[in-house]
Each structure stands twice: as C-alpha cells, then as structure tokens.
Amino acid sequence: MMQTVPRLVVAGTNSGCGKTTLTCAILQALVNRGLGVGAFKCGPDYIDPMFHSRVIGAHSANLDLFFFSPNTLKFLLARNSRDCDVSIVEGVMGFYDGLSLTSTRASTYAVARETGSPVVLAVNARGAAYSVLATIQGFLELEPENGIQGVILNQCSPMSYPALAQAIRERFGERVIPLGYLPPMKECALESRHLGLVTAQEVEGLKQKLNLLAAQAEKSLDLEGLLALARSAPPLAFEPAVMERQEPVRIAVAMDKAFCFYYGDNLKALEELGAELVYFSPLADEKLPENCQGLYLGGGYPELYTPQLGQNQTMLESIRTALAAGLPCIAECGGFMYLTQAIAGTPMAGALEGECYDNGKLTRFGYVTLTARKDNLLCHAGESIPAHEFHHWDCTIPGTDFTAEKVSGKSWACAVATPTLYAGFPHFHFYANPAFVRNFYTACRKEKHRHAGDHETRRD
Known about the structure:
The protein has 460 residues and is of the alpha/beta class.
C-alpha cells in the first residue's frame, strides 16, 4: 500500500537543544494557519507528545524502531497522518543517538532513514557563532544518506542570524539550507522534573506560551520552506497492521494528573478492537466506573499526589475489590505503584505486596525485552515484547513473573503476572506485539460473559 505523507523530522544535536520548544512553535504556527497537522515523537517518551496533542487537538503518536518493525513504524506514521496536510516528527536525544553509546539503532536518524523523511537539524547557537558551521558539517558527514536538508538555529539573536545564514549558504550550497531561527524566549520556557518536562496539563498559561512561540515562528522561521521540504517526501509504502474488531467491552482507563502516561495508539488499538474506553480519575472519583470488564492503569506521577490518592479510600477499596474478583487489569509503572501496599509510607490499594520508595536516581533505565516466565493475562510462558523502563522509584517486591533483558545482556526479574493481571514497572506499546493486547481484550470479553452468566472459554 502507498500513501502520500508530507512530513519532516525535527532533529537535534543533543538532548536539551530545544527540540520540543521548536517543534511546538512549528506545530502551533501551522495550526494557526488552518492546516491539518499530524505530530509524532521518536522514541518511547510520553511527555513531549502531550505538548504536541495540546497544540493539534489530537493524539501525538510515537515512532520507535526498538518497539516496531519497519513496516509497523511506517503504518503508524501513515495512519496517524491520514487527512493531515503535513506531519512533524520530533526527534529524541541527539540525531544519531541510539541504543548504546556507539549505535544508531532506534535513533532519530534510523527513523528518518527508514521512513525516507526530510530532516531539519536544530542547532543551539547560544554562545557560538561561526562554530555552528562545524557542528552542521559534522552531522552532515558522520553518516551517509542522513536526510539532513535544512537547519534551524535555536537561541540565536536576530542580529546574528543573517550573517550565520549567509555563511551556511556559502559553505553548504543547496546541500542544506537555513530555515530560520528562534531567539531566547524565557517567557516560553517549559519546566522540567526528574522524568523530563512537567506534563502539559501542569504548565500554567500553556496556550499563551504556545501562541507566543507561534507568533515568533511566523516572524523568524521559514514556514513556507519547511512546508516545501515536507512536501518533497516520497510516498510511504507499507502493509496495514489491523486490529480485528471483536465483541464490544467497556474498559476503565485512569486519566488525571497522577496517571496520564499512555501511548495514544494503545488507546486507539483498544477502540479498534471494539472497546468503549471509560475514563476516570483515581484522584477525584469515588469508585471505578460501573459495568466495566477491564482496567488500564497507566504510568504518571502518583508519587506527587500520594496524600490525595491515599485519602480517596472509596476508590482504593473499589479497585482492590475489583481485582480480587478477577477484573482483567494492565498496570504500568505508576499504575503498578498504585496497586502496592504503600508509596512513601502512604497506604495505597494494597492489591499487591510491597511498598514503593524513592531510589533517588534512574532505576533500571532503558529499553528491555520482556519475556514471560509463566502463562499470564497477556501471553504464554516464553513469549516476549519490547518494553521500556524509566523511573526513579522502586518497590520492595517488584515482581518475578517476567524477565527484563537489556541489549547489553543484563537482566532482572520484574512484574506480577496472573491470568487476570499484568503489573510492573516496564511500559510497552501494544503494536510491539499485538498478541498481548488481543489476549487482554479476550480476557475482558470473558469477564463480560462471566457476569452475564455465560461461559466463554475460547482464547484468540
């Protein structure tokens, strides 16, 4: 299957060079022009796509070559770009940074090359002048067929940009063109915390900041040049990865400030299978939604809201009772912490043994492959799925029902898995192994029939 997808990748020289701010400036400027815009993030990050989503009014999708096959990657890019005039893909870390210190695997470069997407390199020009050309030249020459066709100078003064742009033209000719700059804009800074940026819903005056960025983009970025570059991208060739529709079920999804880390395509996969997603707040609601056959507790920052979560005794009792009765449940990272006995001494749901504590540093960080040690809700013993861990907190009993193994070969036991539960620190994307979500959905369907007095025993 072929699909025309005008697109470009906004890559960076390194983490912290301003990719997210620049991407949001471009997205908001294009939305303000009345264009239909798609947004994507390379890698497993949850937070940057939240900012994209606030701009475009629809979910921002992740593109990750550790999670996905090349075909699935291109399918998700094409599907989430359908009916869009242009799609903007924000890179992760530095352009060439991959799974290890010396690998480009799963890097922004790999995603751009696999999808044939034009690349615009964001270079932080703060405290530099002619040296930015050395940076650009290094990125152009490190790897062949890198796709870099444009450059934007971030943190660049209006007085410096004309001379630097002219120097870029003279040095590189048509190989790479200057496409504008963003000056320092302290009033638009996005705050950070231990897992990266604060979430979009926590940023005071976010819409005002985004519109200030968009106004600056109209002044100092070559938006027409960016659009022309995006339109030069070749069509995408892929085979659709379809979630076959099944009998409808209702699945409760925790969604508030404490629990908001979800891949948009995971939620969409459940809906494509036939689920009605019923959103609720463990912070504010009294109990689980009525008549649900499944529960999805995503990650987030429950450690920031332990008093409110702990005080909501009716919700804790509702969840504890539902899980004890066999309600199928996926609980990732923050959701797993919520199910344990306590977070930092504050009692939680108590559906699982163990207490969570702040380890003070990133713990078991990075990509892993999860392999089941026994049959469970999601898979049979021996089956695997790519996953990701990114957390400062740990648990005295993190589980032993899966093995997590890094590319380096380092491994550890993790997660609690039963016929009705997956709960652990690793996050995973349903399209990394669709059988996992299909098995979860089948369990939800069985739960529906069990309450209806029927008995469904078939497992897809």
